[in-house]
Amino acid sequence: MASVPVSHLILFIASLVIAAGVVGTITTGVDRVSAAVDDAGLDATEQLRTDVTIISDANAGVYNASDDQNVTLLIKNTGTYRLAPDGSGLDVVFDGRYVPPSAIDGKLVSADEGAAWSRGDVLRLTINANALEGYSGGLDDGDHRVYLTANGDEELFQFRVEGGN
């Protein structure tokens, strides 16, 4: 008769050990999910706070204004998130082709040099068309598109080149 309580005690201890292992595994998994949700929340906040607007006039000669084969755009930070003052946080696609950072030059127009690109500041973004693949002789006449992305905020700018502008 004494063997029945001993076997029950052994099964009870074994079930406690298994339960402790399961609880430890579940707790670790919940911690990881919680951390991922926190990170996603921070990313979403950053994206919501980021807003840029291209304020250049498409009819005002954004291309080759000083005979240098460049496209120059004025971009205003209309969000509350502070961006890099040289435009390095922007992803630029020109006519469907990614523009490498080496072909882009950004300078703040309305703030001290070295300051962050804050709300209300304007960035002069210059794209060297000669450095782009397929445009070594400058842009052809016709419609062109510049697509900008900053922390998930997307902007599209379209302009037309006519008569060897």
Automatic annotation (TrEMBL):
Q: Which domain of life is it from?
A: Archaea
Any Pfam family hit: Flagellin_arch-type
Task: Indicate what this protein is called per its UniProt record.
Answer: Flagellin
User: What PANTHER family does the annotation carry?
Assistant: ARCHAEAL FLAGELLA-RELATED PROTEIN F, ARCHAEAL FLAGELLA-RELATED PROTEIN F-RELATED
Q: Which UniProt keywords apply?
A: Cell projection, Cilium, Flagellum
Under InterPro entries, the record lists: Flagellin_arc-type (IPR002774)
Q: Which organism is it from?
A: Halorubrum kocurii JCM 14978
The keyword Ribosomal protein is assigned to this record: no
Cite a single GO BP annotation: archaeal or bacterial-type flagellum-dependent cell motility
Task: Report a single Gene Ontology molecular function.
Answer: structural molecule activity
Q: Is Transferase given among the entry's keywords?
A: no
